[in-house]
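Re-run with default settings, no changes from the original entry. Doing this only to confirm the output is reproducible before filing.
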Amino acid sequence: MRNQLRPLLAAALAMLFPGLGHLVLRRWGRALLWHLTIVAGGVALFAFYDVTVGGSITAPAEAAEAAASLPTDVTVSIVLLYGLSAIDAYVVGRADAAARERTDATVEAIRRRAASADETDGAGDEASGSPSPVAAVTGSSDEPAEVECPHCGKETDADLDFCHWCTEPLPWADEE
């Protein structure tokens, strides 16, 4: 449930304040890039259209009047940048959620395979010294998860169905 709401929250926050949705997703560079793009784009448009910014706005009526006095080209361009930022935050959030789901599915497949291997092999497997099919899953949210091959012991990409070092099929390849 949390993975489904996170992209929507990121998009809503990106519309509220430039870059805030990306900060929620922990995409620091993207947040800074969107914030600077929208602020610099607004400043450039204000300078290009010679829009003067009068004193401070204290009442909501003054804010509405100031917004109505802006040229349409400036308003549409800034709203478009805000919209693109929100769409990008939503897409990045969905991609992060999908990557998290793939990693969770890989870990679960490894656990199920290890449990079934323990049931069929019994306790004699550890005594013989062969490696356990359970692999340590490593990797951050930006990288694909890596697992240790039960045949050769080298790390390989968890998204693959075989070890790219020894070409043996990985335990969860037959489960899909």
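The CA atoms of residues 109 and 175 lie 8 Å apart. DSSP finds six helices and two strands in the chain.
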